[in-house]
Design a protein that fits this description.
- This is DUF559 domain-containing protein.
- It comes from Streptantibioticus parmotrematis.
- By secondary structure, the protein is of the alpha+beta class.
- The protein has two domains: about 15-220, no CATH class; about 230-334, Endonuclease, Chain A (3-Layer(aba) Sandwich).
- The protein has helices at about 15, 25-30, 35-40, 65-75, 95-100, 155-160, 165-180, 185-195, 200-230, 275-290, 300-305, 305-320; strands at about 25, 50-55, 55-60, 90-95, 115-120, 130-135, 145, 150, 235-240, 245-255, 260-265, 295, 330-334.
- The strands form four sheets. It has a five-stranded mixed beta sheet. It has a three-stranded antiparallel beta sheet with strand order 1-3-2.
- Helix 5 packs across helix 6 (about 155-160), helix 6 crosses helix 8 and helix 7 (about 165-180) runs parallel beside helix 9.
- The longest helix has 28 residues, at about 200-230.
């Protein structure tokens, strides 16, 4: 028999097993020329492949790696294969996302019992096996870590807190989110509030600690701003009052010779109080009428644009001579 007449055998599948991505859907495998009968044969007990989720297959025997487990969960939830569009959107969230983000206070991917995936509310996909489905009216913009789409840290933290009953674990998680600079306390609290988790006592206590931690970090950045950029030393954390008169408000820094005050806005949704906000607005308006300029900043601005915030303060200090004379106020320790 000539070489040309030799019958063709089944297409070798070793090229699939040697690819870097060894998790595929049944649809992808069909596109690679793997018929259903061959797929079933290779996934037999003791076979070289295995089905890990509905229509999702691992192209090797033995345990899946942590990243393979996450990739399988994403494919099950509807993440389009690389290079393709459509098929729905999905991203990993909760503890698995935080592990990918590098959080030290969460178990490694291999040790997690479940992988949380976030999908849009209209997606028709259900919990199965080790995959737990979370839903959002509008999906946030994913952050890719190790090539895998992850929910932003604040959303991932809220989804993780939803399944944690241990107060110490919740507090450690919230604290790490702020200390690492991955997100601001207000963003975390906003997500917790949206998820209706602020009625849980252990979460409320952790949030109080989170806000205190976030304010302390922001205040340390204020001190660094003054020192690094050569601003005049202010008086820190003071109350302003009219002499013998009413309370005007509290400020985080005040330059009496320039009539410039700095206010750090570290409010969070949990502390929403329209009356207090109205009082604060009126206090700022009163200070403005007295000729005192109030510079407002946020923890996020201090983290991401410290030099710019220093320039804003410096401009306010330099313009003091051009403003009308300011009224005298009493400065008292907070």
């Amino acid at each position: 028999m000539s070489h040309d007449a030799t019958p063709l055998g089944p297409r070798p599948l070793v090229h699939l097993e040697r690819t870097r991505r060894r998790v595929m859907t049944a649809r992808e495998l069909r596109a690679h020329g793997v018929p259903a009968a061959v797929l079933q044969e290779r996934c037999r007990p003791g076979g070289p492949w295995q089905q890990v989720l509905p229509d999702v297959f691992l192209l090797h025997a033995g345990p899946a790696s942590g990243e393979e487990r996450v990739h399988a969960a994403l494919l099950y939830a509807g993440l389009p294969p690389k290079g393709q569009e459509g098929g729905g959107d999905a991203m990993v969230t909760g503890l698995a996302a935080l592990a990918l983000h590098g959080f030290t206070g969460v178990p490694p991917l291999e040790a997690l019992n479940q992988v949380d995936v976030l999908v849009s509310r209209g997606r028709k996909v259900k919990d199965t096996g080790e995959v737990r489905v979370r839903r959002a009216h509008t999906l946030p913009r994913a952050r890719h870590v190790a090539g895998l789409p992850c929910a932003p840290v604040a959303r991932a933290v809220a989804d993780a807190v939803a399944v944690l009953d241990d107060a110490r674990a919740v507090r450690a998680l919230l604290t790490e989110a702020v200390r690492t600079g991955d997100c601001e306390p207000a963003a975390v609290v906003r997500e917790l509030n949206t998820a209706r988790l602020l009625d849980r006592p252990h979460v409320v206590n952790a949030v109080d600690a989170l806000l205190a931690e976030g304010r302390a970090i922001a205040e340390s950045r204020l001190y660094e701003m003054v020192r690094r950029y050569g601003l005049p030393d202010p008086v820190w954390n003071v109350d302003l009052r009219l002499p013998g008169g009413p309370y005007l408000g509290s400020v985080d820094a005040y330059w009496p010779d320039h009539a410039v005050a700095l206010e750090l806005d570290a409010r969070a949704p949990r502390h929403d109080d329209p009356q207090l906000w109205t009082q604060a607005r009126r206090a700022r308006e009163h200070l403005d009428r007295l000729g005192i300029e109030v510079v407002r900043t946020t923890p996020k601005k201090l983290r991401t644009s410290l030099e710019t915030q220093a320039a804003v303060v410096r401009t306010a200090l330099l313009s003091a001579a051009d403003r009308r004379p300011h009224g005298y106020v009493a400065v008292l320790p907070r």
